[in-house]
Amino acid sequence: MARPPLLTLQSISLTFGGTPLLVAADLMVSAGERIALVGRNGSGKSTLLKIAAGIVPADGGERFVQPGATVRYLAQEPDLSAFPSVGAYVESGLGPGDDPYAARMTLESLHLDPDAAPGPMSGGELRRAALAHALAPDPDILLLDEPTNHLDIAAITWLEEMLAERRKALVLISHDRRFLEALSTATVWLDRGQTHRMDQSFAQFEDWRDGILNAEDEERRRLDKKIAQEEEWLRYGVTARRKRNMGRLGKLQALRQERRDQRHQTGLADMSLTSATRSGQRLIIAEGVSKDFGERPIVSDLTLTVMRGDRLGIVGPNGAGKTTLINLLLKRLEPDAGTVRFGTDLTANYIDQTRGALDPTMPLRQAISPSGGDQITIGNTTKHVAGYLKDFLFSPEQFNTPVGALSGGERARVLLGRAFAMPANLLVLDEPTNDLDLETLDLLAEVIADYSGTLLLVSHDRDFLDRTVTTTLVAEGEGVWREYPGGYSDMLVQRGEAPTTGTTAAAEKQKGKSGKQAAPAKGSAKKGKLSFREKHDLETLPARLEALEREIARLSQALADPNLYARDPDRFETLTKTLSERQSEREASEERWLELEMKREELEAG
């Protein structure tokens, strides 16, 4: 017998500024369910979650919560200003029957000091404090809005495992694909003000969504054909009869109204990157770079060469110094020791995670154009600012809106729009995925793949790293950074750790408890075509092979020194071992590429 829902939203409607945001949205949450709430930026996901939490009233519809059921909500931007300490903020979320020690225990699990003042906290620390505020009471229903924003990979993995072990209900908004795939048991898609539910995990969402959209396209084509037939009859049939058939005319008007009432799916942003003049072969040469803050080493004796066309992902826990490393490589920060040199014709474009380049008081139409004016040049094309804003999914009603009034995802699109209009042969992105919806993330990954320049990417998004970078630079602790060929999952394999390609440790635990094999993620191998992973490998392996060839050449050149062994036998042994590893990796990568290329040719021939 099905359990009664703990929380129900039925036929919810809400209008902002004359535009309907929610038209007929439903949400039903039963005990133990884990629901992924997905949709485009601006579709109303956060608003629907606030209505579920009882924070925002709806214009119409019904909200029902089972008597005695507790609901806790995690906001995207928590405000701790009214509390003297982090502990006091978290304790304020406890109810009369909650464990008074739960707040301190949860903060310790999240590595936060309960007595710390909230003022100087970083974005990651604020997010962890907000998580503790929501988790400590152990509510029956947990509503989480982008919980992984500003969290490092270690914290995301901890949260993923902790939520998987909970038996309480969960509604989750997130742009992290692997997080959603590992946790969700049902998916609710909010599209054009209405909700659609699938009682499967997010791993099956995209195929299901595409089926719905294809059916809508077919219905539109059918309706357009019917309208054309009725118009044809009116033009010729009415004239021949010399008598107006009011029934047929009314039918045509009704069809036209039905067509107008169909709200079209929100399109994809039209993104493209503008490349500057071709740079030299070597863009950035760092030799023996070190940087300490007090007694804490951030970078210790780093030697790194960024070559033209490299796609370098920078990974590490919050506080490891990823942004500091970027600033050192861009010569925005002086090292304590060592040197950083630029190659010829280097033009860098840097988007930082703080989005500090945006003036919150500036109207959107001025903020999108780095040079001002009504025209903007992208490559060899000149566009009107209004048209360019539409490319990034902004409506004409928003053109004069202050940047500060935009959502986090909209501000992210503004920064991307500004950056993409500036010619650059080095693109530096520091946490670009925060607040972007999944469709925009897909498009951004495609744009980066087509970019002819060089990429430095700081990210905690495991899927996005795998899809965009060919080399991963990892913080190993004590200021040590190490390069690994390939993306994030490749790095884990080389370190002897299990890759998190859609089935995380949390998902494995759930599989073991249920005794069932988890459903394969979208893109797993299907008969008759390459899987997503195979396509990704086929596209990225040539660049990875080039990177391995460069590293092998560099190691061979260093070992060619006849005096190296006598001068430094330890270094000689290390270089020899590394060279052997890289040669083995090159052989394995070549075999993999040949295997996939043969499979692709067979599929195309078949």
Supply database-style keywords.
single chain; alpha/beta; Rossmann fold; globular
Which descriptor suits the 3D outline?
globular
Estimate the helix proportion, in percent.
40-55%
CATH class category of the largest domain = Alpha Beta
Question: Quick one: how many beta strands?
Answer: 20
| Count of folded domains | 4
The largest sheet has its strands arranged as: 5-6-7-3-8-9
CATH superfamily of the largest domain: P-loop containing nucleotide triphosphate hydrolases
Largest sheet: 6 strands, mixed
- What is the gyration radius calculated from CA atoms? 27 Å
Provide mean pLDDT, rounded.
Answer: 80
- Strand percentage lies at 15-25%
The CATH architecture term of the largest domain is: 3-Layer(aba) Sandwich
- Our count of helices gives 19
CATH topology of the largest domain: Rossmann fold
Regions with pLDDT < 50 over 5+ consecutive residues? 238-244, 500-527
